[in-house]
Every structure is written in structure tokens, then in C-alpha cells.
Amino acid sequence: MASLSPVKLLFLYATIAVGSTLQHRYAARDCCATLSKVLPGRVSFKNSTIYDLSLSSYWAEQETQLHPACIVNALTTDDVSKAIHILTPPYQAASVPFAVRAGGHGKSGASNIQGGVVIDLSALNSVNISHAKRTVTIGAGAKWGDVYKVLDPLGLTVPGGRSTDVGVGGLSLAGGVSYLAPRVGLAVDQIVGVQMVLASGKVVNTHDRQYADLDKAIRGGSNNFGVATEFEVICTASNGSYGGVIYYPLNTTEQQLQAIHNFTADTSYDENATALLSFGYSNAEAVALNNIAYVSPVTSPPKKLRQFTEIPSLFSTLRAATIFELANETAAASPHGFRQATFTLTFYNDLALMHEVFALWNSTYPPLASIKGLSFSFSLEPLPRAILEKTGHDMLNLQDESEPLILYLLSATWQNSADDDAVYSSALNLLQTTERRAEAMKKLHPFQYIGYADRSQKPLASYGEANMRFMRRVSQKYDPAQVFQRSVPGGFKLHDADW
Predict the structure, then answer these.
(1) In whole angstroms, what is the distance from residue 412 CA to residue 139 CA?
(2) Which residues make beta-bridge pairs with 248?
(3) Residues 61 and 178 grouped into a single domain
(4) Is it the case that residue 14 has pLDDT exceeding 80?
(5) How far is CA 322 from the centre of its chain?
(6) Short-list 52, 102, 32, CA closest to 490
(7) Which range is the signal sequence, renumbered to this chain (predicted)?
(8) Residues 332 and 397 grouped into a single domain
(9) Residues 180, 287: one domain?
(10) For residue 396, what are the contacts with CB-CB under 8 A and spacing of at least 6?
(11) Which domain holds residue 467?
(12) Closest among 165, 173, 125, 118 to 144, alpha carbons compared
């Protein structure tokens, strides 16, 4: 048989590619038509009001620019079950690519999809307190602001997002560092059980003993096992809190780094206290800021937080406040409608490394200063033993760590897509340089927080080989066709590791 010329090979490849694209488009179109029949009034299409409202409500602008073939606006768990059944084999000859949206606070491609189907859980936003007020059942589509509005007046709270705009579903499956983390652990460790729709369309509750393996795998395993529609979470008494943001000039950097180092290293850690130190450039102006909170009724900074309040500042918003008010302040500082990128690392609580981290970030910004609307920042978030020792029934693999850690978050926010490459490549280069420096100083920890990680990173692999193998076994057991690995491209997948 004669070999094909390069031109004919190229034509053949193009023909196959176009055919594949059309096949997916027709499959999605047919699937949307079926969904409309099975879920009348629940499916919206391009140029409809509901479709446009759903798209415009994403946090990251990149997400608003993806256009699914249709959006399933689920009102009940049964709606989700029916949608999953239609989207997957054997109903479809091949799975139609789809995404699941809870709060919509993820980055590009996390909860939206071009040309596929989106299952929008926004209407699953109920917040119901148990009769004994020991637990609260929260719909996966709720935002943490919805939760705090219900719980604050009752003198209750839960470990949740530090922004009212963050969704319950995404954070609860990622890990979740909250104002309460030193007292009760991460959000995943306070979950009693999760109502989930499996790839078969079956609805299960992970609290049932027969799903003990699934219950553990989802705690940090993100969207790899099914669609979470409801969370039952342990309530904690909350009689008041104190906190806000302190803004400082950049010439206090040395004092800031020393304070966050001491705060993290303190062996008599006050479990009511949290601090999050950030440095940022915005409109070519630099600032340091500390987001501090104390989840106990006080009217002035308690002893453990005074090392931050005694540093000369520009101004602060510290006051007695509810959890909702503290989280709402954070949300106001991170509005919708901008392009977003975040990256993460974890390292040991080493002061010399923190100085290196600051210097690397500070030297990266000047070439980016002319980019319109750019905010370029990094944060240092303590993970003291008070938090680490309360983890364990999850996938994060932090419970045996004997030394306090620092969670590093690198963030970029900007306006124009024309600047995507410049911002992203600079941020990625900074991340990689910082990672190499931490590794050279023998201070790098493998953990990567999935809620902050960039698509270039492998947070699931950072949980370790044993946990990855466990999650893969659970995935094969409950999703033998691997629907949530192959047909749900958003997020991080279980094949993202070398073993």
C-alpha cells in the first residue's frame, strides 16, 4: 500500500478532527434535547435569560467566556440524578462532556465547559438546622454567606469559607481552612456525611457505613467520585467574634514576617485566633495586610494577636463582628468580573525562606506594572499543629506532620485577555522559582492545597502514593466507566500522578 503524502496526512487529520468536533456537538445537542424532555423547565439555552444569568454569575471572567450547549438548572437532587443518568452510558453511546457548578467561585474550566452540559446546583441552597442544633444540612449550591446568615443569629457557626461569596460545594470537598480551623480542624473534618449522585445516577449518603470508603475519599478528593448535592456539618457554638483587616506600609515587611513566623511557631497556640498575612501590588501601589480573626466575644485584640496590631499601620477595620460580617469584608475585596489565576505551595515555617519568598515576589512585579487593573499578591497562611493534629479522616495526609507549616497562595487578578500570557507566565515562573528555592533550603513540603492550585500543578498527587491509589480504587468501585475522570474535565483528576 502506498504511503500517504504529508499533505494528505494533514488533510486526513483535519477531517478526523472536524468530524470528532461535529460528533461531540451533535451528541451534546441531542443530549440537551433529551434533558429538556425529562426535566421540563429546568434546561436553559444560549440567549435565554436564565442561561445568561448563570454565565454572568461566575467569579472568574474566564469562566463567563465558556458557552455550554445547555445548562441544567437543578432544583432537587432527583433532578441531578436524572441529568447524570442521561449524560452517561448506557443511556448515551458515549458520555457527553459536562461540568458541575456549585458556587461558581473556581477558576477557568473548573465549573463550566465549552460546548458541553453544565449542571448548575445554585438552586440547591437550603440551610436546615437539626432539631437538636448539633448539625446543619446545607445544599451544595449555597454560598457561605447564606449559611452564616442563618447560623449567626442562633449563636452557631461551622468551619466554612472566609468569603461570603465562596460556594459550599467546592470548598467542602477541597479541605477548607476557616476561621475555626485551629479549634475544630478543616471543613472536611467536620462533615458528618454527604449526599451524592454517583455516575449511575444512584443517590447515596456517605454517612451510611457501607459507603465508608467513599466518605473518606471525597474529603479532599474534590469532584472525582460523583456530584455532591448536600452536606451535613457539625455545628459549633459562636457567641461572637472579633477581627478585620489591618493595612500596613511595605516598610514593615520584616516585622510582618517575624510576627507571622512567631504566631505559627507558638506551642501555646490560641485556638480562637487566626491570621493571614498578604503582600500586594495594585495600580503600582504596594501594601501589606493582615486578615485576623478571633472567634470568641472580645472587644479588643487578645494577647496572641497583638504582635500584629502593635506594628505601625495605615488603618484597620478591626471590630467586634459576626462571622458573616468578617467573611463579607473579604468578599468585597475580591469582586466578580476579573480574570483570575492562583497558585500554591506549602513549606515549613522558616523565617529565612519567608524573606526569600518576599524578595522573589517583589522583583517579579515591576515588568507587569503597566498591565491594566493588575493586582499581584501572595499570602502566607499558618497551618500550626493546632490545625494539623485535627486532620486525619481525609485524603490530605497532614495529620502526622510534626512541624507547623505555611500555606503559600500566589494570586493575580487583571482585566484584559490580551494580558493573559504575560500575567500567567510571570506568575508561573515565580511559583517555580519559589518552589526551587524552598526545595534548595530543604523547607518545601509536598502538600498542595487543591482550592488554590493552578492547572499546571498536581495537588491530588501531593497527598502521597498510598492515598492516590486508595482514591483510584474507590473511583473504580463507584464509577467503573470512569465518567468523572473522562467526561468531567474540570478540576484535578486521579490520573494526575506518575503512579
Answers:
(1) 30
(2) 288
(3) no
(4) no
(5) 23
(6) 102
(7) 1-19
(8) yes
(9) no
(10) 175, 186, 188, 219, 220, 447, 463
(11) 127-237+463-484
(12) 165
Please write the tens of the pLDDT for every residue from 45-87: 999 999 999 999 999 999 999 999 999 999 999 999 999 999 9
- In terms of DSSP bridges, do strands 319-321 and 241-248 run parallel, antiparallel, or are they unpaired? antiparallel
**Residue 281 sits in the same domain as residue 430:** yes
Q: Is position 6 within any domain?
A: no
Q: Do the Cβ atoms of 360 and 434 come closer than 8 Å?
A: yes
Per the domain annotation, does 212 fall within a domain? yes
Dihedral-angle region of residue 484 (phi above 0 means left; psi in -120 to 50 means alpha; beta otherwise): alpha
In a shared domain, residues 224 and 293: no
Average pLDDT taken over every residue of the chain: 94
- CA–CA separation, 305 and 210 (whole Å): 45
CATH label of the domain that carries residue 252: 3.40.462.20
Q: The domain that contains 43 carries what CATH number?
A: 3.30.43.10
CATH number reported for the structural domain that contains residue 475 in this entry:
3.30.465.10
- Phi and psi at residue 137, in whole multiples of 5°? -105, 125
pLDDT digits (tens, 9 = 90+) for 264-296: 999 999 999 999 999 999 988 999 999 999 999
Sequence length of the chain is: 499
Nearest to 362 by CA among 346, 378, 382: 378
Residue 245's identity, in one-letter code, is: V
SS3 329: helix
Closest CA to 398 of 211, 209, 219, 259: 219
Provide the 3-class DSSP secondary structure of residue 287. Answer: strand
